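Work Package 3 (structural annotation) set out to generate three-dimensional models for the target panel prioritized at the project kickoff. During this period the team completed the workflow that converts sequence records into discrete structure tokens, so that structures can be stored uniformly alongside our sequence database. As a representative example, we reproduce one entry of 585 residues exactly as it appears in the project archive.
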Amino acid sequence: MAAPKKSRGPAGGQGRPGRSLALILIAMVALTGGMFLADQPTPRLGIDLAGGTSITLEAKSEPGQESAINKTNMDTAVQIMERRVNGLGVSEAEVQTQGKSNIIVNIPKGTNSAQAREQVGTTAKLYFRPVLTVAQGTPTPEPKASSSGKPTPSGSPSAPTADKGKTSATPNASATTQGRAVTGALKADSTPTPKTSTTPKADATPKADATPSASAADEAAAAKLQKQFAALDCSSKASRAEAARGAKPTDTVVACSSEGDAKYVLGPAQVSGTDVDSAKAAIDQTNGQWIVQMEFTKGGAKKFQKITGQLAQQQSPQNQFAIALDGEVVSAPSVRTALSANAEISGSFTQQSAEDLANVLSYGALPLSFKEQSVTTVTAALGGEQLQAGLIAGAIGLALVVIYLVAYYRGLAFIALLSLLVSGILTYTLMSLLGPAIGFALNLPAVCGAIVAIGITADSFIVYFERVRDEIREGRTLRPAVERAWPRARRTILVSDFVSFLAAAVLFVVTVGKVQGFAFTLGLTTLLDVVVVFLFTKPVMTLMARTKFFAGGHPWSGLDPKRLGAKPPLRRSRRVNAPTDPKEA
């Protein structure tokens, strides 16, 4: 005699729906508590809803360096820009790439957009260069050439009365002195190595020089640089930008002060911004002026000590070193003794300008130059109108879903509405927490994604309800119908949600900007739909099947067997054999 088979428990945990409900209740309480503990009771809004400024920057490469615009450099630029903006105390800003050469910076309202625009677009290439000569920022007469080819003074343009560093009293310099300083610097930088002399043969015939000597080349380069220096007009912003463009660290260059009141001839860079370990704004205790204090790395400290030791032995203005930021001299202090690990940048700084400079020095230079392509400002009033329109659209969509559920499913609509409420609470709390956690901002496309998710969530309920109704039409009572319908509905719901999530993931990967907000919200709500259906809708349906209202097939339950056209239950009956003999009948 075969042993009786052990009966399996009802599929779907019919006898233990309370565990699933308790689990999702704990999750809701935890998320809601975390939302208030994080002091984030509402989702963070994007600039199209809250108002703000959107800046589009286009990467520009130097001539011959077009390959510099690549994914690595663009990603590095995004990280540096994020650190700079965050250094201003703006944690809600969004910085992301768009295409191959554009970066979008979204800055919410309440931020000094002008300050942020300057921070994100500044390349912040810092170099410490020795000063060869200095003059006022206006064009100076070119020196006239004598018969010997050397410049003669044609005027005495005076230098600024004070340098931009802590020590003043830069002496006047004539055009002749300036030309000699430039020439001397070029000779020092490019002195040719002498060759070993040999005794010429007796029959050797002296030949004329075919190429100019190194000294002649230096004189020509110095004359060209002197001409450029004399013509430079630092009072013009365009001229200052032109002078700073394309300057290499190894070149002797001309440069303007950041205010445009002085111009300089600067030698090759001796220390770069990468040698700066940290920088901060502070007040000079001796005069109460704002300064920027820097600390160098170990290697940078050695370079700085070497160059300052050399400059300390020079006469003014060649004992100065210029601190050039993006080609403009922000400070040119004099050096009296060798310095090592620390340095100060002083000048006509305000608190904001000192903090801005310290910020860009601390977080590094951008690997590319950027041009501001467009700036879009969204007012808070316009953002509020868009948010209101989005909420109205969501309310209309939700109302239509509720009307359909009540009209067609009657009592089952109560379960669907409870499930939508749970899904809404989970979505709201997660959006609020994801703001400070990963920088998620609810923009208008994200609101659209949430509205679309209402239909996706309602569709899962409809699939399950229809499977239960199919079982009742087959003649089963409600409790077995609920459990038998679940495996079939579960497969359909999982496949449908997987397709929706896959579409959202692909859309998130291949798009940029605000469209990603739509994709992210759609993917998030799709995952929550699976959680709600498994941990809430199914257990609640199991509990409702035990009540008289639903189990008895009340006309307003939505599960009335008569209205569904249920077949009568199949019952077995004994078969009676008909008599074959008429007499027995």
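DSSP finds 16 helices and 15 strands in the chain.
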